[in-house]
Amino acid sequence: MTLPSHPFGTEITCEAIIAQMSQAHGWEDRYRNVIQLGKKLPAMPEELKQDELKVSGCESQVWLTHQQQEDGSFHFAADSDARIVRGLITLVLAAYEGKNAEQIQAFDIDSYFEQLNLIAHLSPSRGNGLKAIVEQIKALAEG
């Protein structure tokens, strides 16, 4: 099955998201930006929303799957039943989409999140869920 394509990591890059968030006026503005990004994430087909694709450690339901391309790069598809989590997923996809395993492991996700100035405003369970998504992607990249 072909995974749905999305603009994250290609048209919508980490740099673009950092620039957008740096223009935000306060937490509410950042929150709105995250929700808007989530609206650009295509829904994952229902047949892919299987228990074995759920990310454990997330309060909301989150599904994550991937395909490794012939050139070694990864294409990810993810979805959630929560709007804010869909937005948070886009932040992660912008960081990892189209990268190979070495690039995924080398990417400084903590620095990226710090530049977005979001983590401090997330509930502990949302923050843990975001970390769980990142860890799942890193584990998939390790094979």
Automatic annotation (TrEMBL):
It is an enzyme of class 2 (transferase). Residues 19-139 form the Fe-S metabolism associated domain. The keyword Transferase applies. Keywords: Transferase. One of its GO terms (molecular function) is cysteine desulfurase activity. Its EC number is 2.8.1.7. The keyword Chloroplast does not apply. It comes from the Bacteria. Pfam families: SufE. SUPFAM superfamilies: SufE/NifU (SSF82649). Belongs to the SufE family. This is Cysteine desulfurase sulfur acceptor subunit CsdE. It comes from Photobacterium rosenbergii. The gene is csdE.
